[in-house]
Automatic annotation (TrEMBL):
Name listed for the protein in its UniProt record: Phage integrase family protein
Phylogenetic classification of the source organism: Bacteria, Pseudomonadati, Planctomycetota, Phycisphaerae, Phycisphaerales
GO terms of biological process kind: DNA integration; DNA recombination
Superkingdom, taxonomy of origin: Bacteria
Provenance organism: Poriferisphaera corsica
Transmembrane parts of this sequence: none
Keyword Hydrolase: no
């Protein structure tokens, strides 16, 4: 009986970690505008959280345009990423995280799982204009100063971003 309780506790911890990681992956995709494949390519060596302007480095070979990019990060996302990186997670506390360790483990079926998460949260996958719900929050991030004054985001910026996808 004691073994069964320990097994359930381990499973609960594992599921809690997976939930937090999926939430952070979704948040990172939403706040940066990265594609799934682009985020999957980011390693710990490409994460710069202690810079004056924290950013993720996207290598040219991993970016759709082939130019590479420095993706600036919001302060709240930086703190979540820092916590994720410094957790003694995975299977062993002694695990050595290297420069080439992926920031996240992103699986092939992640978008299907993300779709299920949207459904569970009662969020439509597409809005009335057939625009994916993942791009609207990113587009809104383009005008953070105007949001402070409750003004709508720059329509031109939103149109450009949504049409690029």
């Amino acid at each position: 009986m004691k073994h069964l309780c320990n097994s359930r506790r381990r499973q609960a911890k594992k599921l809690a970690f997976l939930g937090k990681e999926r939430s952070l992956i979704s948040r990172t995709l939403l706040y940066t505008g990265l594609r799934k494949s682009e985020l999957a390519s980011v390693t710990l060596g490409q994460v710069y959280l202690d810079e004056r302007t924290p950013y993720l480095e996207l290598l040219a070979k991993d970016e759709k345009a082939g130019r590479g990019a420095m993706i600036p990060l919001r302060a709240d996302l930086v703190e979540h990423l820092r916590s994720h990186i410094h957790l003694p997670h995975k299977k062993h506390h002694t695990l050595q995280l290297t420069h080439n360790t992926p920031l996240f483990k992103i699986t092939q079926d992640m978008m299907r799982v993300f779709g299920r998460d949207l459904t569970a949260a009662s969020i439509a996958k597409y809005d009335q204009r057939a625009v994916s719900s993942i791009f609207t929050p990113f587009a809104i991030q383009l005008a953070p100063t105007s949001l402070k004054h409750h003004a709508p985001p720059c329509p031109r910026c939103v149109t450009v971003v949504l049409n690029l996808r």
